[in-house]
């Protein structure tokens, strides 16, 4: 996995995708599967982290508010302040599920869980 | 090419990538190659449009401010208000060039060209 340039203020979506995600204990949680974008404002709404499964089967996805991810040069991946137990209860969806992106009730639950300001709030 | 859901307020970066770009005359200009993101604010800085070349050789890239792209359901692609002649003079880079992302002089030139407010301005 190519390391991200930590000093760069601007990074490409294709390089963020595939980057590993760890918790603060250094445990590997998953990797960035995709980014969800708010079309109107052009802001990243969520980084979708994938974990578990084999060759995509049984894989589950966690939408993480962008602000919860900090890049760590030492590990060469993103770090989120989340134990594996906390992750178990986090909002997630399966491979064949179609999350209600743009639905404020669904999305508010994600932001409440991570105590992160919603992407539709003024920055 | 899968069509984007025009009604969705939130779309995935992986679906935006590969989407065709046309001008208002309906001429095909290129396709979305990647998205450049402002790490600090989580905003899309540019959509990078690729055009020309064959199997990536000779391909050129145009950074387009996100706000210049409008999705058109009829064509199933993005539309920018730009003639092919205007595109000829637009800021661009080659496959092996490393654009100065985050450099305000380089970036201001892009925003000036498209008369689009820079991504670092308050939204």
What is the mean pLDDT of chain A?
Answer: 87
Shape of chain A: globular
The counted number of beta strands of chain A is 8
**First and last CA, distance of chain A:** 32 Å
Secondary structure class of chain A reads: alpha+beta
List unreliable stretches of 5+ residues of chain A: none
Described by strand count, sense and barrel closure, the largest sheet of chain A is: 7 strands, mixed
Report strand % of chain A. 25-35%
Order of helices and strands of chain A: EHEEEEEEHEH
* Rg of chain A, Cα atoms, Å: 14 Å
How do the helices and strands line up, and which of them pair or pack?
Two copies of one chain form a homodimer.
Chain A: E1 10-12, H1 13-16, E2 20-23, E3 28-38, E4 43-51, E5 60-65, E6 70-72, E7 77-80, H2 84-88, E8 93-94, H3 104-114
Parallel strand pairs in A: 2-7
Antiparallel strand pairs in A: 2-3, 3-4, 4-5, 5-8, 6-7
How do you describe this structure in short?
2 copies of one chain form a homodimer. With 123 residues, chain A is α+β, with helices and mostly antiparallel strands. Helix content of chain A is 16%, strand content 34%.
Structure description:
The structure is a homodimer of 123-residue chains. Chain A is an alpha+beta fold and 123 residues long. Chain A contains three helices and eight strands; from the N terminus they run βαββββββαβα. Chain A has helices at residues 13-16, 84-88, 104-114; strands at residues 10-12, 20-23, 28-38, 43-51, 60-65, 70-72, 77-80, 93-94. Chain A has a seven-stranded mixed beta sheet with strand order 6-7-2-3-4-5-8. The relative contact order of chain A is 0.19. The mean pLDDT of chain A is 87. The interface between A and B is medium-sized, with 29 and 30 residues. β1 of chain A pairs antiparallel with β3 (28-38) of chain B.
């Amino acid at each position: 996995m190519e390391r991200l340039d930590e000093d760069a203020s601007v990074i490409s979506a294709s390089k963020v995708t595939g980057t590993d995600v760890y918790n603060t204990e250094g445990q590997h949680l998953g990797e960035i599967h995709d980014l969800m974008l708010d079309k109107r404002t052009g802001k990243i709404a969520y980084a979708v982290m994938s974990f578990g499964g084999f060759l995509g089967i049984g894989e589950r996805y966690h939408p993480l508010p962008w602000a919860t991810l900090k890049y760590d040069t030492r590990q060469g991946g993103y770090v989120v302040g989340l134990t594996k137990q906390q992750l178990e209860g986090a909002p997630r969806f399966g491979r064949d599920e179609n999350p209600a992106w743009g639905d404020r009730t669904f999305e508010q639950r994600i932001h409440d869980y991570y105590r992160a300001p919603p992407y539709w709030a003024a920055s």
